[in-house]
From TrEMBL:
MF GO annotations: DNA-binding transcription factor activity
PANTHER family, per the entry: CONSERVED PROTEIN, HTH-TYPE TRANSCRIPTIONAL REGULATOR RV0880
InterPro entries according to UniProt: HTH-type_Bedaq_tolerance, HTH_MarR-typ, WH-like_DNA-bd_sf, WH_DNA-bd_sf
Gene3D superfamilies the UniProt entry points to: Winged helix-like DNA-binding domain superfamily/Winged helix DNA-binding domain (1.10.10.10)
Protein's UniProt name: MarR family transcriptional regulator
Biological classification of the source: Bacteria, Bacillati, Actinomycetota, Actinomycetes, Streptosporangiales
Residue numbers spanned by region Disordered: 139-160
Superkingdom, taxonomy of origin: Bacteria
Domain HTH marR-type: 1-133
SUPFAM superfamilies the record matches: Winged helix' DNA-binding domain (SSF46785)
Range of residues in the leader sequence: none
Length: 160
């Protein structure tokens, strides 16, 4: 029996091309959005920790963090736990920009799912979480998630 994973592949390809949620004036670069999201959930991180978390080489992360620093989104601080490596922490501006970005994406998702029931949205989110968690398990790089589903998400008006 052939598994229907080809349907997932095709839909995932289509999903990756839909930038409708991210093409807004002043939108954060995708790499900055992911970097800030990870630091927000985990706390200050060194280049080594970021490299391990993202599976990227240090030179790539040095470029990404340098751009985020130039934009005032992150700052380097001494390790709060007394280690030698300096860590990156989100600035107030970075927090604000991340909240703005997330609000915009949530508003877009609210428009897309305007005709969905809350049960459908919850089920879809659960399948996405399971899919991502299985990828993370296979890659050996789990992504921390907030304690509650919306702990680090800014509040937004519901569509409807």
């Amino acid at each position: 029996m052939v598994r229907p994973t080809h349907e997932i592949e095709y839909e995932q390809m289509l999903l990756s091309r839909h930038e409708v949620l991210r093409h807004r004036a002043g939108a954060l670069e995708r790499s900055a959005y992911i970097l800030l999201s990870r630091i927000r959930v985990q706390g200050p991180m060194s280049i080594g920790e970021l490299s391990e978390a993202f599976g990227l080489d240090a030179s790539t992360l040095n470029r990404q963090t340098a751009a985020a620093m130039r934009a005032g989104l992150v700052e380097r601080i001494p390790d709060p736990e007394g280690g030698i490596a300096r860590k990156f922490r989100i600035t107030e501006k970075g927090e604000h920009r991340l909240d703005e970005e997330r609000r915009g994406i949530i508003e877009g998702l609210n428009m897309i799912t305007a005709d969905w029931s809350d049960d459908d949205i919850v089920a879809f989110a659960a399948y996405l979480r399971r899919f991502n968690s299985d990828i993370e398990r296979l890659a050996g790089r789990p992504w921390p998630r907030p304690a509650a589903p919306d702990t680090d998400l800014p509040k937004t008006k519901q569509a409807g």
